[in-house]
Amino acid sequence: MSHATHSPDTPQVLAERLKTWGRELGFQQIGITDTDLTDAEPRLRDWLARGYHGEMDYMARHGTKRSRPDELVPGTLSVISARMDYQPESRATLHERLADPAGAFISRYSLGRDYHKVLRRRLQRLADRLAAHIGPFGHRVFVDSAPVMEKPLAEKAGLGWIGKHSNLVNPRAGSWFFLGEIYTDQPLPPDQPMADHCGRCRACLDACPTGAIVAPYQVDGRRCISYLTIELKGAIPEPLRPLIGNRIHGCDDCQLVCPWNRFARLTEETDFLPRHGLDTATLIALFAWDEPTFLARTEGSAIRRLGHERWLRNLAVALGNAPDSPEVRLALETRADHPSPLVREHVVWALAGLACR
């Protein structure tokens, strides 16, 4: 990294400027930490050793670069961590959508524009603003796009604490927010971490549909619906299919029940508002999308990464969990001879389950 030219500001003043600029750019909070993740590193190693990452080989691929920021980006002295709210609708509405078995429930983070693009652009603007103030400086922007331990870094930077469901929780904002980072060679003063305020609460553990939160602060990714519907490439294990319900892309149950989310605020970012009626769409309507329609309506969305084949796989499972009706059976039968063996297998499972009711 190349160091900045001299700035008249003290590191403390510079940190305060960054926080002000961050708010002006639409972030709800900016925090700063050093690069020491020695507490988080053994927890990551243990999680990987247990196989909880499933097929997510990238979680283990980069050695210690994930837990040692200065190995990923040599010269890194500080990490600027940012959060941006994304909750698009009230908790009551969220519960209603999830409770409708004919409706397709999509995790609320993916209803709008791809958050990677939104946050990366804003963080780069924040870095550019700092460069305009102090001169060129070494930095890299990350938004869930490299081996970065974003939640432990955000926790150290005072943005919240990692809850029992493994998401970051802020006492004034809940957990409905995205995280992004700037690794920098600037020696900025670190913020103070928050205390853990989960207490004896176990709402998230009790609410997880598949029992993926196997113990407080431990998530077995192989059972998590977000993993099963997004990361898993092949067939969803049959015992878990009935537990998925109508969730076709991710799962928000642990956030929905978290008592701290009564303090969450609705997003002010229009980019995060639902597109193409995905917040109210029915399973049958989405299952009818051919591949060109899928690609057109998920353009610029995090859902696009899923691909049409796994989109149909997930919808077939959800239709198999829906109330039996001639319309549901007809929808499934239209895909019974789909070219993909993966799609066909899940359609056969769904039709067999409906026939047994």
Characterize the structure shown.
With 357 residues, this protein is of the alpha+beta class. Among the domains are: 152 residues, no CATH class; 76 residues, no CATH class. 38% of the residues lie in helices and 11% in strands. The chain has 16 helices and ten strands. It has a four-stranded antiparallel beta sheet, with helices on both faces. Strand 5 and strand 6 form a beta hairpin. Helix 14 packs parallel to helix 16. It is elongated, with a radius of gyration of 22 Å. The mean pLDDT is 96.
Order of helices and strands: HEHHHEHEHEHEEEHEEHHEHHHHHH
**Largest sheet strand order:** 1-2-7-4
How far apart are the first and last residues' alpha carbons, in Å?
63 Å
Supply the number of helical segments: 16
Mean pLDDT: 96
Oligomer type = single chain
User: Could you say which overall geometry the principal axes of the C-alpha atoms support?
Assistant: elongated
User: Which class of secondary structure composition applies to the elements?
Assistant: alpha+beta
